[in-house]
TrEMBL record:
Organism: Rhizocola hellebori
Major subcellular location class: secreted
Subcellular location: Secreted
Source taxon at top rank: Bacteria
Domain SD-repeat containing protein B: 210-284
The name this protein goes by in its record: SD-repeat containing protein B domain-containing protein
InterPro entries: Ig-like_fold (IPR013783), Sdr_B (IPR033764)
Keywords per UniProt: Membrane, Secreted, Signal, Transmembrane, Transmembrane helix
């Protein structure tokens, strides 16, 4: 009678190794042996390529049994692809590739934080921490709001990397508002991936115009007509808030706005001046700057200037007149003054005619 002994279970080995390490990290594999009937030689071989080809470097060989074992430090300090082959007895574990990399940092910068809609918005992008032979690419993404979110960025450009990113990026998209961007580096076999910090920037447009002394009353700023300094212009934004600007020596003013919508401009003529154009203008802002938002004013004749009519105190039994209010300097006040002046002229003419008529009547009644 023959008795057949059951076949012995085959031993298995499992190797755990991370796919990437920094040049400053320890590279120690973990090997688990199971199903072994005794001790056998556990060997570690490291290759300076990613596919366990060529001549290996023997790091260690020890006698080991079932259990979990920590291998030697495989770190070489040389960035690039490496691989590990572990053998136990007559068993060879699959080749384990891993990368040794230098840590890279990505940095972005803008020349300023606020741009006019007609300007290019070109960030500087730099990589640091590499050996100068970095490859891969940098992708630049833009968000339509501050803070790089919410949602996914719009890819603006992908720049190849040869040591540093090559080429330039223009973030300008032709719309107003506060936006944000970030740059990410893909990394390569010798260099880690990297992401630059999010950066905000603002795109706006100008509303420009002038206040001019409209000498000919044409309501148009003609050649030779001087600007009027010191005039306050009020800007009413679409959401209702306001801002003010004062015209400079040339009569010019400007506002920088960062949102599209309908804006209202209101001018206040200085004392002694009346308007020759509308004092309120509306501007629809989309993306581009707008100019020629002009206001015309004309100096009033001295006889029509507002004045105080308070009479002086008179002694000697003559009654004292009460002071009258100063007349308005608005356009309606000036119209009232003109009407009163015309009325006084008419009254004076009527009185003169009456005096002439009375004199003639006396001569006719008294022939001597």
């Amino acid at each position: 009678m023959f008795v057949v002994a059951p076949a012995a279970a085959a031993a298995t080995i499992t190797v755990k190794l991370e796919p990437k390490y920094l040049v400053t990290d320890s590279v120690r594999p973990t090997v688990t042996i199971s199903g072994a009937s005794g001790n056998s030689t556990l060997a570690y071989r490291r290759y300076n390529n990613g596919d366990c080809e060529g001549s290996p470097q023997m790091f260690s060989s020890v006698s080991a049994a079932n259990g979990t074992h920590t291998g030697p430090d495989l770190q070489t300090g040389n960035p690039g692809p490496h691989s590990l082959r572990v053998s136990y007895g007559g068993l060879n574990a699959p080749c384990q590739p891993f990368l040794v990399q230098r840590k890279v940092t990505a940095v972005t910068a803008l020349p300023k934080n606020t741009f006019e809609s007609s300007e290019r918005v070109e960030p500087g992008i730099a990589l640091s921490g590499g050996l100068g032979n970095a490859a891969g690419q940098v992708e630049v993404g833009r968000w339509p709001a501050a803070g790089c979110g919410p949602g996914k960025a719009t890819s603006v450009s992908i720049l190849p990397v040869t040591g540093q990113p090559q080429g330039s990026v223009n973030l300008q998209d032709g719309s107003l508002g506060t936006k944000s961007f970030a740059a990410t580096y893909s990394g390569d076999e010798r260099h880690t991936e990297a992401a630059a910090a999010c950066r905000d920037y603002t795109v706006g447009a100008f509303i420009r115009g002038k206040v001019f002394e409209d000498a000919d009353g044409s309501a148009t700023a003609d050649a030779g007509e001087a600007g009027k300094a010191g005039v306050v212009i009020t800007l009413r934004r679409p959401q209702g808030s306001t801002a003010t600007a004062t015209t400079i020596e040339t009569g010019a003013y400007e506002f920088f706005v960062t949102a599209s919508g309908k804006y209202t401009l209101i001018a206040a003529p200085p004392p002694g001046f009346d308007k020759t154009t509308n004092l309120e203008l509306q501007v629809q802002m989309v993306a581009s700057s707008v100019g020629e938002q002009n206001f015309g004013v004309v100096e009033l004749p001295s006889t029509l200037l507002p004045f105080a009519t308070a009479a002086p105190q008179v002694t000697g039994g003559v009654p004292t007149l009460d002071g009258l209010e100063e007349l308005s300097t608005s356009s309606e006040g000036f119209a009232l003054i003109r009407l009163l002046a015309l009325g006084l002229v008419v009254i004076a003419a009527l009185v003169l005619l009456w005096l002439i008529f009375a004199a003639r009547s006396r001569r006719e009644d008294d022939p001597f």
